[in-house]
């Protein structure tokens, strides 16, 4: 009886801990996206812009592992699809930066903010 109770407590504790770690990781990814979006928009050269976009892409790719539940009854894309759309927009902006079109890349980058805002609308509680 004692072993069964102890095993149950350990199992429940491990689920609680893993949920807290996942939430912290997603929160960290969102902070990385936000911080680097700002850096990207303030970049004066392709190197800084590319570094910020690479950081944003890494955070978006990592975020795809989290399956978020929408808090609205509207028809919404899955969180995975939304992160995938953000990655596509980051890649488009990066291609423009690499082509020497930093100002156009920043215009393209506004779509990233639009998708971010859409995600906050659907998935923030």
Automatic annotation (TrEMBL):
Ribonucleoprotein recorded as keyword: no
Positions contributing to heme b binding: 30, 120
Family stated for the protein in its record: Belongs to the cytochrome b562 family.
Keywords: ATP-binding, Heme, Iron, Metal-binding, Nucleotide-binding, Signal
One annotated Gene Ontology cellular component of this protein: periplasmic space
Cofactor: heme b
One of the record's GO molecular function terms: iron ion binding
Annotated GO biological process: electron transport chain
Transmembrane segments: none
Signal peptide: 1-23
Record's protein name: ATP-binding protein
CC cofactor note: Binds 1 heme b (iron(II)-protoporphyrin IX) group per molecule.
